[in-house]
Design goal:
Distance between the termini: 96 Å
Strand content: under 5%
Number of helices: 4
Oligomer: single chain
Shape: rod-shaped
Structural class: mainly alpha
Length: about 130
């Protein structure tokens, strides 16, 4: 038995699917009290209402689950979407700072090399073998 559509909830469709009328006839033949036409219609209506309520519950649960999954997926967005702009700003700031201090850094490195060379020359002239 497949899924029911809204068109399948009519009395004829219910009679075909659930054989309510055939069951009522069988109950009557077995000596059980028979259902009159209004009771039979009520039974079919109750079945249709039960099916509609179950369908509504399933659709609501499906919708809730879909919404929950969408929320979860939105929370799992790649970091590049959230941090692309701040990372680009940080890189630009580092380049600016690097450009400003590059000259001073080169001068300081040259001065340190010169001081080390002077120290090594002094140690050689004095014949020192230990650290100055």
């Amino acid at each position: 038995m497949g899924l029911l559509t809204k068109d399948d909830l009519g009395a004829d469709a219910l009679a075909r699917r659930f054989d309510v009328r055939a069951r009522a006839r069988a109950d009557g033949a077995a000596g059980k009290p028979a259902l009159d036409a209004s009771e039979l219609a009520d039974a079919e209506r109750d079945i249709a209402n039960t099916i509609a309520a179950a369908r509504h519950d399933i659709e609501r649960a499906r919708s809730d689950k879909r919404d929950e999954i969408e929320r979860s997926l939105r929370q799992l967005r790649p970091a590049s979407e959230d941090f692309a702009a701040p990372v680009a700003e940080a890189r630009l700031a580092l380049r600016r700072v690097g450009g400003r201090v590059a000259h001073d850094y080169r001068a300081a490195m040259e001065q340190a090399r010169s001081a080390k060379a002077d120290l090594d020359a002094f140690r050689r002239m004095q014949g020192l073998r230990r650290a100055a």
